From TrEMBL:
Pfam families: CheR (PF01739). The keyword Methyltransferase applies. GO terms for biological process: methylation. It comes from Rhizobium meliloti (Ensifer meliloti). PROSITE patterns: CHER (PS50123). SUPFAM superfamilies: S-adenosyl-L-methionine-dependent methyltransferases, TPR-like. One of its GO terms (molecular function) is S-adenosylmethionine-dependent methyltransferase activity. This is Chemotaxis protein CheR. Keywords: Methyltransferase, S-adenosyl-L-methionine, Transferase. Residues 9-247 form the CheR-type methyltransferase domain. It comes from the Bacteria.
Length: 453
């Protein structure tokens, strides 16, 4: 059968037909995935594929599964689950004392590991009867797997052995979640690209916590802009939204109250008009032993305030503090602009190039971020923070180069004491960054292995 490779134009048409949109960096991979489906289904022409989409439910779900990324595991992003346990849950319970159950929503839930992780966390805290968990995904295939709640060893790779023993039944290499936790999660089909939100008639409104992680990173800016407004509208007053560190920032698209924490960016729906007094909220990501009321101030901002009193710092360091302050205030575009201007005067400052890189990354400018982080690596190849973020930037476009950068970051961290703070990332320790690098490396290797298979 003679057939040309599906074009990027066909990939865009298919995406539009199934209600999806993809960033420019993903379109080549989407075209390749569509080609594989057409070969497997013996569909010779793109027009035939387009005509059948929407009418043939199995074909439509096959295409959706092929062009979306369903990689997940239990307690993925442990820092965010710790933030939920130590900060978000207590705050919600204080406000909702004696009221109706809390409502959580896992968007892009894939095979269910994320919402079930929430259920396990709530059960561990003795709160399972006080919450209702909804979960949604565009793929009916993965939703069926989620409802079955049976997992392999890989899905539980970051799960505490105690939790695995307590909440799962093992049988022939598979692990089945217990019935009590399965009943706490309601799964539904949802297409963020086409379905109207909020939808109170479907109970898709007034959520106290929404997790939409590793979903928006794959979408084009216009879709992200629309979805940001929809997610804000789906939150209850004071409700929380968590995205993944690699997802694009949402504060420029909807009036969220925004915080930058060691667990990533946190968004909230403002509770009252006077909550607009500050563009960023102060969120304590972990319980602290000190009684100091300033303990919840993000560390980078506290360092910037303290360093203003210090004399004798060189100019580049002083400018870097200003840039970090803008970033902490939720203004990555302004931080990137300041960094680019400063680099003109201090072209050999690795810190300024690094700050431009992470600011571009937070703004969704992956190519510009990659270029900036490559310059850091050129100036000082031993900076683990730069190697780590370079690897994160490259993992979709050049996974082999991403592996090299992440392995460099891991090697650098392992050569230091686990408690030593990382240069350019003083809020992180070598041990913490090494764990993050290992997780990213494992994810990339799994993807490369599945493609080879």
């Amino acid at each position: 059968m003679n057939r040309r490779r599906p074009s990027l134009e066909l990939a865009e048409q298919v995406a539009g037909k199934i209600g999806l949109s993809f960033s420019a960096s993903r379109k080549e991979a989407v075209a390749t995935a569509i080609e594989r489906v057409m070969v497997r289904r013996r569909i010779g022409e793109g027009r035939s594929l387009l005509d059948r989409l929407g009418l043939d439910e199995y074909l439509t779900d096959d295409v959706i599964s092929a062009v979306t990324v369903a990689e997940t595991h239990f307690f993925r992003g442990p820092e965010q689950f710790e933030l939920i346990r130590q900060t978000i849950l207590p705050e919600l319970l204080r406000r909702r004392s004696g009221g109706p159950p809390l409502r959580f929503w896992s968007l892009g839930c894939a095979t269910g590991e994320e919402p079930y992780s929430l259920a396990v966390l709530c059960e561990e805290e003795g709160l399972l009867n006080d919450v209702r968990i909804d979960a949604a995904d565009i793929s009916r295939r993965v939703l069926a797997a989620a409802k079955a709640a049976e997992y392999g060893e890989w899905a539980l790779r970051n799960t505490d052995p105690r939790l695995r023993q307590r909440y799962f039944t093992s049988c022939e290499g598979r692990f089945r979640l217990n019935e009590r936790l399965r009943r706490q999660v309601d799964f539904a089909h949802l297409n963020l690209g086409t379905d109207a939100l909020p939808a109170p008639e479907k109970r898709l409104a007034d959520f106290d916590l929404i997790l939409c992680r590793n979903v928006l990173v794959y979408l084009e800016a216009s879709a992200v802009r629309r979805i940001a407004r929809q997610l804000l509208a789906c939150l209850s007053d004071g409700g929380w939204l968590l995205t993944a560190p690699t997802d694009p920032p949402l504060w420029k698209y909807a009036p969220f109250e925004t915080s930058i924490t060691p667990a990533g960016i946190v968004y909230r729906r403002i509770m009252a008009p006077d909550a607009r007094k500050s563009p960023t909220a102060c969120v304590a990501p972990v319980r602290r032993q000190t009684g100091d009321p300033a303990a919840c101030v993000p560390r980078a901002r506290a360092r910037a305030a303290a360093s203003r009193k210090t004399t004798g710092d060189d100019t580049a360091k002083a400018i870097a503090r200003q840039i970090r302050s803008r970033f902490d205030l939720g203004e990555p575009l302004e931080a990137a602009r300041l960094a680019a201007r400063a680099i003109e005067r201090h072209p050999l400052s690795a810190e300024l190039h690094f700050l431009e890189g992470v600011s571009r990354m937070a703004s969704g400018e992956t190519d510009a971020a990659t270029a900036a982080l490559r310059r850091v690596a050129y100036l000082d190849g031993k900076l683990a923070a730069a190697q780590f973020f370079l690897g994160v930037c490259l993992k979709d476009s050049d996974p082999q180069a991403a592996l090299r950068a992440l392995e460099n970051a891991l090697s650098s961290c392992l050569s230091r004491s686990p408690r030593e703070h990382v240069a350019l990332m003083p809020e992180a320790t070598a041990g913490h960054l090494a764990q993050r690098a290992r997780r990213e490396i494992a994810t990339i290797r799994q993807h490369l292995g599945s493609e080879a298979g």
